[in-house]
Design a protein that fits this description.
It is globular, with a radius of gyration of 19 Å. It has one domain. The protein has 234 residues and is an alpha+beta fold. The chain contains 6 helices and 10 strands, in the order αβαββαβββαβββαβα.
Length: 234
């Protein structure tokens, strides 16, 4: 099994197309994915049966924008529109019978697109959340959605435009893949604080506004100085 995984990463991860065609890369990765899946690991990868491998199809990519901590701290506007730049990552859902089972991640290295991996648990869950939100609004299509990730704070939001507003849904880090039993890791104090701060954005889609920016900035302060979350001595 270990040999299969090593061979898979050798074949797929880092594979690039000079023509910058991420969808072709993802399709090739989907074919190669079958190489490492067997009866011992199909559930770990999000599938409910080996038979689903023959039903795998690639869905529309979710564009991912990465935002640095410095950008958050220096940002003054209440709107998120100018906060993020170009798309640096595309996450393609792998569907079976219309349901998200896993994902293929394709990243841009500055010149070309290349396969970065598959089955990122949190991003796979984000894709499933996107499908759920989309299903509640028949007029919206998958391509309207994108993700904003703040890697240094372990934050991930699914976003879409609604008029002039950017609406966001928070994706909790420890949520298991669709089709898998939930196996959350033990929460640290910072994890618990993150969950408390953004729980409202997990339960419902809300605007990305000045309030959310302040919550992110507060979490950043706590990450740099844990005492910032403690009440001052009287």
């Amino acid at each position: 099994m270990l040999l299969r995984a090593l061979l898979f990463c050798t074949l797929v991860c880092g594979q690039a197309w000079s023509q910058n065609q991420p969808s072709q890369l993802a399709l090739q990765a989907l074919d190669d994915l079958k190489f490492i899946i067997d009866e011992t690991n199909y559930e770990d990868l999000g599938f409910r049966s080996l038979a689903e491998l023959e039903k795998m199809v690639l869905g529309d990519a979710l564009p991912v924008h990465f935002v640095g901590l410095g950008q958050i701290q220096d940002y003054k506007r209440a709107s998120v529109d100018d906060l993020y730049g170009s798309v640096q990552e595309l996450v393609f859902p792998v569907l079976a019978d219309g349901h998200v089972r896993t994902s293929v991640v394709v990243k841009h290295d500055g010149q070309n697109w290349e396969v970065a991996g598959f089955g990122r648990k949190r991003m796979t869950n984000a894709l499933a959340t996107t499908e759920k939100i989309r299903s509640q609004d028949e007029e919206r299509i998958t391509k309207d959605y994108f993700a904003i990730e703040v890697p240094s704070l372990f934050l991930l939001f699914i976003c879409h435009k609604l008029g002039e507003q950017t609406m966001v849904t928070y994706i909790r880090e420890e949520t298991a893949q669709p089709g898998q039993a939930s196996k959350p890791r033990s929460l640290t104090v910072e994890d618990q604080l993150r969950q408390d701060i953004f729980s409202e954005f997990e339960q419902e889609t809300r605007p990305f506004d000045a309030d959310l920016l302040e919550r992110i900035r507060f979490l950043a302060e706590v990450a740099q100085d844990p005492l910032a979350s403690q009440p001052a001595d009287e």
